[in-house]
Amino acid sequence: KAYKKESLRHHPDRNRGDDEAVSRFQQVNAAHQAFLAAIAKGSDGADKTTYDAKDAAFAFKAMLRRRDISSTCEWDDLVEVCGEDPDFLAVRNNGERRQALSEYRTVRLKEEKDAARREREAKRRDFVAMLDDPSATHQVSHKTPWENARVLLSRDPRFLAVESVEERQDLYDDWRAKAKLKRKEEKRQAKVASSGTTSDAASTKTSSSSSSSSKKSRHRSSSSKGDSSSRSRGRD
Questions:
Q1: In this predicted model, what pLDDT tens digit does every residue of 34-59 receive, in sequence order?
Q2: How many CB atoms sit inside 10 A of residue 5's CB?
Q3: pLDDT at position 21, please?
Q4: What global pTM score does this model have?
Q5: What is the dihedral of CA 165, 168, 173, 175, to 10 degrees?
Q6: Cα–Cα distance, 161 to 22 (Å, whole number)
Q7: What is the DSSP letter of 189?
Q8: Measuring CA to CA, how many Å separate 119 from each of 116, 155, 162?
Q9: CB of 44 within 8 A of CB of 82?
């Protein structure tokens, strides 16, 4: 039925003046002949078909992918777009074609969802990278409230790439909270480093004072011994 419909539709006698009609008619005939050859039977009535439903369905799905058919494509739209394709006509009947289309749509839908998820994640990463970008024309910090930040960031393509207003604010609030913790930790480390330097200086000063006191003590001891020796010689 499909062959008769398409052959009549593209027959040169019905498309006079259309130079491409002959080519289309020949393509339909070639696809029909290939189909007949695949299901041909011998004179003895024994089935000698070489038709492989799996191979035909595989070629059908490959044709859908080649034509970039989306997961939302309906049957009637598919027939209109791909009805003349040899890989479409090579499948034995519409039941098998519909089944192949259903399987293709299931796989394609998963692929489209995965692609959308990866794209969304990439946009979120770019949004956070924008907030950390030191070369950006805007200047926001952990002290900048969202009401001010969204005005400063409103012209950056990375800001606009995240379409949901709520998602933008959630990303900004999360970044701001982490920035506050980071700043707090930097201050703590700076304080520890400063305290360590002060302790080292105090320790050095104490050591110097102890050394000086020891020298003075030794000096007084030497002086005391000298005086005792002098007094002893004087008595002698």
A1: 766 655 554 444 454 578 999 999 99
A2: 11
A3: 72
A4: 0.55
A5: 180
A6: 49
A7: H
A8: 5, 20, 10
A9: no
